[in-house]
Design a protein that fits this description.
With about 260 residues, the chain is α+β, with helices and mostly antiparallel strands. It has seven helices and eleven strands. The strands form two sheets. An eight-stranded antiparallel β-sheet has the order 1-2-3-4-7-8-9-10. Helix 1 crosses helix 4 and helix 3 crosses helix 4. The radius of gyration is 17 Å and the shape is globular.
Length: about 260
């Protein structure tokens, strides 16, 4: 698998693909998607800031339609799906360019299309399970979107207290919006009950396969999730993320 990192403004992609030139297609699609999103925000600022689903008249580019649909299904604003939607259109572009196996990770929101098994690590800040667990995604589960939202890690808006709420769906756009919705429900001082609240919210979201919620020392899951595995030895990418996060300390910035 060839690997490349590409960043533009808030978009931070790590792409792994079995065809190097297909990565160029994925990057081009991600850049085009960003431009389409920014043009719509200029015309309709509500698309960026709404915390509730939106219905916009007319035809729109695929990345916009994915975000609108995901927000409606998950009961959140369309921008809750932005990272996952960009991952998805980038992965689809790589396949159209001839790739058989591609992973696009956009800051923890992942789209996978392929014909082989993949491992995906779970990063959840200072939670006990962070960097120790992951998913073994079997080839018959693909394509798949695996996306995370957190109230303690990263710059994305979350109204909940989950260290990681991970949603799984056929499409990364929906998984991203669902993860936000689930994370928003993980609130309260009672850790176990807050996790249960997140799982109950997941049950209400149509077309997702399942979810996993991590908070402090506890984990809950619902639905059909990929096989949980230990991720030792930790990948270089996950280890770098863990070390970078630890260097900030609990009160410092998280990326």
């Amino acid at each position: 698998m060839f690997s490349r990192v590409w960043s533009f403004k808030e978009t931070n992609l790590r792409i792994k693909c079995d065809l190097d030139r297909a990565i160029d297609a994925a990057i081009s699609a991600a850049f085009k998607a960003r431009m389409e999103i920014e043009r719509l925000i200029w015309r309709c600022p509500e698309f960026r800031w709404s915390l509730e689903p939106l219905k916009l008249k007319g035809d729109h580019p695929r990345v916009i339609e994915l975000m609108l649909r995901a927000g409606e299904l998950a009961g959140v604003g369309p921008f809750a799906a932005v990272a996952g939607a960009i991952s998805q259109v980038a992965a689809e572009a790589a396949v159209e360019a001839g790739a058989n196996n591609v992973v696009v990770d956009n800051g923890g929101d992942i789209s996978i299309i392929g014909e082989r098994d993949f491992r995906v690590g779970i990063f959840a800040g200072f939670a006990a399970a962070s960097g120790k667990l992951g998913f073994l995604v079997k080839k018959d589960e693909l394509p798949i979107g695996i996306c995370a939202s957190s109230g303690t890690v990263g710059h994305s808006l979350s109204l909940g207290w989950a260290d990681a709420a991970v949603a799984i769906a056929d499409e990364a756009a929906l998984a991203d919006a669902a993860a936000t919705s689930i994370s928003n429900a993980v609130v309260g001082d009672d850790v176990e009950q807050s996790i249960r609240s997140g799982l109950e919210r997941a049950k209400e979201i149509p077309q997702i396969r399942g979810c996993l919620v991590v908070r402090e020392k506890q984990i809950g899951f619902w639905g059909k999730v990929s096989e949980l595995i230990g991720v030792e030895p930790v990948s270089h990418e996950l280890q770098a993320t863990l070390e970078k996060y630890k260097s900030y300390g609990k009160d410092g910035p998280a990326t």
